[in-house]
What we know:
By secondary structure, this protein is of the alpha/beta class. The chain is built from 20 helices and 13 strands. The strands form 4 sheets. Strands 5-2-1-6-9 form a 5-stranded parallel sheet. A 3-stranded mixed sheet has the order 4-3-11, sandwiched between helices. It has a 3-stranded mixed sheet with strand order 10-12-13, with helices on one face. The N and C termini lie far apart (about 55 Å). The model has no long low-confidence stretch (mean pLDDT about 95). D-mannonic acid binds near residues 227, 367 and 368. D-mannonic acid (CS2) binds near residues 294, 298 and 368.
Amino acid sequence: MQRLSELNLKNAEPNAILPAYDRSSIKPGIVHLGIGAFHRAHMAVYVDGLLAANPDTGIVGVSLRRPDTKDALAPQNGLYTVVVRDGERTSARVIGSILEVLDANSEREKVLSLMASPDIGIVSLTVTEKGYCHDPATGTLDTTHPDIVHDLANPHDPVSAPGLILEALNRRRLAGIAPFTVMSCDNLPHNGKVAKAIITALAELRDGTLAAYVKTAGFPGTMVDRIVPATTDADRAEATALVGLEDAWPVVTEPFTQWVIEDDFPQGRPLFESIGAQMVKDVAPFERMKLRMLNGSHSTIAYLGYLAGHQYVSDVVASPEFNTLIHALMTREIMPTLDMPDADLPLYRDQLLKRFSNKALKHRTWQIAMDGSQKLTQRLLGTITDRLAAGESIQLLSLGVAAWMRYATGLDENGAVIDVRDPLRERFAAIVAEAGTDPEALVDRYLAIAEIFGDTLPRNALFRQTLVRHLTDLYRQGAVKTVAGLI
Ligand code: CS2
């Protein structure tokens, strides 16, 4: 079979949706850092819809860690397939908005000079929580982070996302060019403000004039939402069959997609609203709703579900106990913390449960369980803090945290090893070496990780007690019985 490429598009299957614009007229206007599956199934699809009207907003993607996306997409001229599965039907669309992928490690100079070029109006990023090199509990730059230490010593040859952005902004400043807008598309609370805070903090450590220039850039916050499981070989085969051209790295997703963007683009912007994005003055309420409802439930499903032996999210919510638990978690303990007068929260909750139950997605609990240390704060702990302040129950919210504690020990309910992927993984191993399986000792040691829990929450006796009780139950009777006992 022929490879997916610009030249071979004419041989695609008639049902496949192809770029509806002349690709040769598209110019780069956006540099995107972190060209993973999420970006390719989300923002790049929106931008694909813009290109007919705005040919100067093509995307150049940058891989920060591995060149694998570049290797897969370069022979395809940046083209790839988005496979959408609603549970019954599957459709395929070839996306052409990514013009090229650059590898930051081997092509750093090319990346920086492109970012510094006046043609680039937006630098967007999905580098995941840990890519911000910050302290998740406070949202401030971690100046001891090895990449930040490197970038401070080598400011013109940076390796971190904040370092790359800062050096490119520095070059623009020196060339008398206005700053690009920095658009964070990561699942962080106040992602625009966090991006601004860490890049400004890094600039201040370099030079005050640069920091003043950085502050004139736009840093819109965004809420991004689309479920995108990691691509498997079966997905590759399906995409290839649907399009009739071999695609080395398609992405698979659900029909739902949402993008809410703060309107903070001092240098102007494409008409994102024309392709279904919502432009708002303040994204915070949307972000909070999504992080607490969707991601808070997701992490709870991931840790408990994994412990109960479920591989996929859809299997977890297909089990009546877990379904009842997640419904109750959202209704009783999350929804009351949200101030969204215009949103129909019960409807949002029901839609989420339906999205989670999409069996065709095969979203692994293990994938969501990754990087818990970077995720817990915004997904569960903020909600817990609000509930405690209001004197309300945290019974179900803290079960997710206790399940994470058990998961992070690295041994499942059958004694099998869990492949825990987390930047703090070694800290967890040290905790387990000291505390074994003693729930009190484990809870106390986990709570002492200030980057996750901060200073205040660990001192709350009710929180500690609830965690100890849940963790004791998880050890004594396992996840399924613990959940059954709570609903
Ligand atoms: C998931 C998210 O992997 C995870 O941690 O919770 O990636 C989730 O699928 C997206 O935020 C949905 O928009």
